[in-house]
Amino acid sequence: MRRIYLDNAKVVGITCVQAANYNFSEEFQSFDVVIIDEVSKCTPPELLIPALKGKKLVMVGDHRQLPPMLDTSTVEEVAAKIGHTREEMPFLEESLFKSQFETANSSIKQMLNTPYRMHPDIMGAINQFYYGKLECGISEPDSKSAHYLAGEIIKPEHHLIWVKTPRENIF
C-alpha cells in the first residue's frame, strides 16, 4: 500500500537535511523539480543534497534576511572543529543563494516586492535593505494588520517599537 501511495504522489515534502537520509535517497532517486524554500538559510552542503536530486531546481528565499544557520555553533566554532579559520570559510556566513541570485541572468530571477502580511510601519523599517522597492500590499493596514495588543507601552497604533537595552545586559 505504501509503495502505491508513493508511486502516485505528485508532491513530496522534506527538509534539506532529511533528503540526505539513506532510506529517502534509496526510495527517491530523482525528481522532475526540486523547490527549496528559505534557501538563504541553507549551508552549501544542505542545499546541494536535494539540488542534486532534481532535473530542475527552484530556489526561493531572501538573502537579505537570515544567513546560513549553523545550529547553535558560531562560525568560529564550526571552522575550528574542522581545522580551519573563519576567513577560510566564507560560505558559512554568506549564503550560496546570494551569490547565485546576484550573478543569475535577470530572465531567471524575480524579486517579490509586495508584502501582504507586513504593516507599512514595519516595512518602512526594513525597506532600506530593499533599496526602497517594497510596496505594501495590504489595503486598510491599520485594521487588517491590527495586533490587538494594548497596554501602557504598546498602543493599537504602534506596529513597531524600538527598545534600547544597555549593552552590559546583553550577555
Layout of helices and strands:
Layout: H1 2-7, H2 22-27, E1 31-37, H3 44-51, E2 54-60, H4 75-81, H5 96-103, H6 120-126, H7 141-144
Parallel strand pairs: 1-2
Key descriptive features of the protein:
171 residues, alpha+beta, Rossmann fold, 2 domains, two-stranded parallel ribbon
In words, what does this structure look like?
By secondary structure, this protein is of the alpha+beta class. It folds into two domains: 1-109, P-loop containing nucleotide triphosphate hydrolases (Rossmann fold); 111-171, no CATH class. The chain contains seven helices and two strands, in the order ααβαβαααα. It has helices spanning 2-7, 22-27, 44-51, 75-81, 96-103, 120-126, 141-144, and strands at residues 31-37, 54-60. It has a two-stranded parallel sheet. α3 links the parallel β1 (31-37) and β2. The chain is extended. 12% of the residues are buried. The mean pLDDT is 85.
